Predict the 3D structure of the following.
Amino acid sequence: MKQTLLIDDDKFTSFYNEKIVKKHDEFGVTASVNSASAALEYLNKALKGNVKKPDIIFLDINMPAMNGWEFIEAYNELDINFTSSIDIVMLTTSSNPEDQERAKRSSLINNYINKPLSLTVLDKILSELTLSKSI
Amino acid sequence: MKSIVLKKHIFLAIVLLVSLHMGSQNSSEQVNRLKRAISIFNFAEQVVYNDTNTNSHFIIGVLGKERTIIDLRALSEKRQLKGKPVRILNFSAVKDITDVDLVYVNYNKGFDVGYILNKISGNNTLLITEDYPYNASMINIVKVDNRFEYEINEAILNENNISVPASLRIGAISSIEKWKQHFQDYEKKLEKSNEQLDKTKTEIKLKEQEIRNQKEAINKKVSKIETQGEALQSKQNQIEALKLVSEFRKKKYSEKIIIERELETRILKQLDALKSSQQHIELASEKIETQNRILSKQKEDITVKESRLKSINKELDNQRIISYLLILLSAIALISGLLIYKNNRSIKRLNSALKEKNDNIYNQSLILASKNKELEEFAYITSHDLKEPLATISGLIELLRDDYDDKLDEDAKMSMEFIDKSSKRMRSLIDALLEYSRLGKAKHKVFINCNDLLDEVLSDLSNAIQRFNAKVTYNNLPEVAGSKVELRTLFQNLINNAIKFKKPDVDPVVAISCKIIAPEEQSRSYFQFQVTDNGIGIQEQHKEKVFAIFQRLNSREEYEGTGIGLAYCKKIVESLGGQIWFESEFGKGTTFYFTIPKQSQLT
């Protein structure tokens, strides 16, 4: 069971994403936050062992205050021993090719997914994760 | 001085004349010399030396070079004096006189008698002089005719402690009158010779005058060397004549010889002087000559310099002409420079205007670029914001369908489907708009073989081709420079349209071809492609709308699509620097044309 941290500023999207993730047998939701700073807060708590550590993060790009990319930068500052076991999946509606390129270049980002999330998409993510892990 | 010397000479001459006259023969001369020596010996024997002399010899000293020395020495071998052998000494100067018993001196040797007396005083020495003035010495002898007369100065003798015996006193001339008397006898005899002497004297004087004159003349006429040489010659001749005369006289009057010798030496001296002055003159003339040479050299130099000056003047003239020409040229240059400057200024003004325009254009292009960038970003952001809720809608409808499908009635289901379709359509429109905004941005151009490209496009469209039983032909298409994605979109849209807008009962036939054109108003050549179909055609009134974005000419039910395809095509072609247009006959078909610049190399 993959424990998921969902990061999206849109409450409706978050609601939908939670529903889909919970619906999938292989995924569980540890937390759903509406900002990148809240996500960092959660991760710091998890680092101390206060909350459950996620296995996978679904990250939106376009968010107010701290956007997805800025979150990645801050995330990079965290203890590598802690973050190395966490996968990040970009979940976005952005069709900007620059964003796609940037996601591909970053070693921290495992996947780049266009919204909406669906069970099929989750299956695909899972299979690609196991594939990359096995390699 | 001259007169004194002359007098002395005259006196000497007289003495000589007397002696010569007296002893006209050589033998008598010898006798006289012997007589003199004997006289001296006799005086020495007769006088009494009052102090005793212990010398072994009786010493006689002779002052000056004197033949008498020989005579005395000859006599000293035969006679003794005061019982002692006699020795004869010779002194050349008074100061050399040593302690002797007797001193003999002749007036013609020029010794001062006072000085001699002073020297010998106290030495008990007898002084015998010859031809000295009366009473000047101790014993003074003088030769009268063929005998020697003498006078004694007893006072001086006594001072020197010498006494004179009476026998000697008797023979001596006792007074000056007597002394004079002796001379008077000769005077008469001498008158004749004196007259001759006077003659010679005047002659000498004349000659002296002449010489003086000549000297003056020489001094005056330094430059006239030749005339002086002649004068010299004449003088020499005269001297020669004089010599002859004197030689003649020598024979007759040997005394003249001495005078003439004297004269000769004088003349010779003067000749020497003349010679030296001649040398001076020669030297001067040499100097003059050298100076003349220098002068001539300088003259030559001057002529050389003159010629040089002439050439320099010529050069100067030439240079002046050149200078004038140069001035003219520089004036022309100045004028042309001014003109050029003016031109340049206007060009500069134009340039600055052009630069300003360029700057404006550049600024505008910068503004445009930033605007474009802004627009692009706007498109992305907008699309994201637009698509986000759409995605949520689609997702939620999917959830509803999965979870509540059995609880909804047919109307609700249909509504849900419409919501789903509408949201999906909206998504595709947004994507199309985004795609449109992104077109023409490709910076990386490559050479693309259009034959290969069309192979790919047809394989992509294989579904539609099969569905409509379409026939697409192309051959011999060129390589063009551009973005592969964009060119593919271009061909895809054109072919897709050609197949899609088919007449209901006719299979679509599409022909693609290309030719090179070179428009007259353009400097470059183009590939002109054409895509011809046998479709429904385009009505004349819709011509303007065809390339507009989201413009549809037909209902979505009849012909599906977003209506953006030809807008894509227009944007792509124009971004490559080409044009797109079409010719169509409604109901028969349409031909789309587009041009792409022919490029030999990538930019």
